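chain below, 321 aa
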Amino acid sequence: MGQHVSRTDFEWKYDDEPHKSRRTEILKKYPEIKQLFGHDPNFKWICTAMVIGQIATLYFLQDKSWSFLILAAYCFGGVINHSLSLAVHEISHNASFGNSRPMANRIFGFFVNLPLGVPMSISFKKYHLEHHRYQGDEVIDTDLPTLFEAKLFCTTIGKFFWVVLQPMFYLFRPLIVNPKAPVKLEVINAIIQIIFDAFIVYTFGWKMLAYLIMGTLLAMGLHPVAGHFISEHYMFKKGYETYSYYGPLNWITFNVGYHNEHHDFPSVPGSRLPLVKKIAPEFYDNLPQHHSWIKVIYDFIMDPEIGPYARVKRKTKGLDS
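prediction:
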């Protein structure tokens, strides 16, 4: 079973999350960062090309063997789908059409969601914005692992399986920890996705729908691009609850690795987050940071000081009125 984790509880804090105060401090010194706020006009075209490209590849894959499809889903299709899931993350912050056109962002989210095979764009936004506003809240922030996860996956082999099963935890944890009634747009998201999935089955066969969903799930688990799930907020150095990653995989993940910068300035689109660091380097250069998501996954599994318990939590205060 390997080594047992050294922690027996989460890291409890009783102060506010650090990003609001740092944002105020940075803007006081560098007010020009406000010029980076807004949407990225190139973002929607990049996403559109990715969606069309992913669908086009199905024509060439429809007659391939299952073994080839599994490999292709892990190495290619899953990488594209993971990138599209991070595009959905960008869209949740209105990066495609700006804050003045919220419905255009939601509709574009339906479109970007299509190759993933499962409806998630609206549900993701609903929970993700609370993760920003209530970071570390034991109930509201559903990015936090549950006590059940921490107790069950507390050995080296346990953490390995936790990483493999990450897609299931991210899909079902919010429904258990902080369930919310579905909203109208979620129903629309689901209907559009079902129609698209039926179109894929009718046009290319069941294997191609399986290929798309397989890629989505594989690239959320034991996969280099999924390293960001762990690198973002798992406590690799005591007391620090958000970490940036400055490595090459940012090129295909809309700079999600610039995570301290993102939490400090969620209104800055991913393409401009490196500029935040460039303008205000003294606020970021000395923070603990990552340079390899593969190493993050390896250390998470092998290091007994890191595991599901290695997260900062705060007692819930409830939603603001």
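The chain has a mean pLDDT of 96. The first helix runs from residue 19 to 29.
thats it, cya
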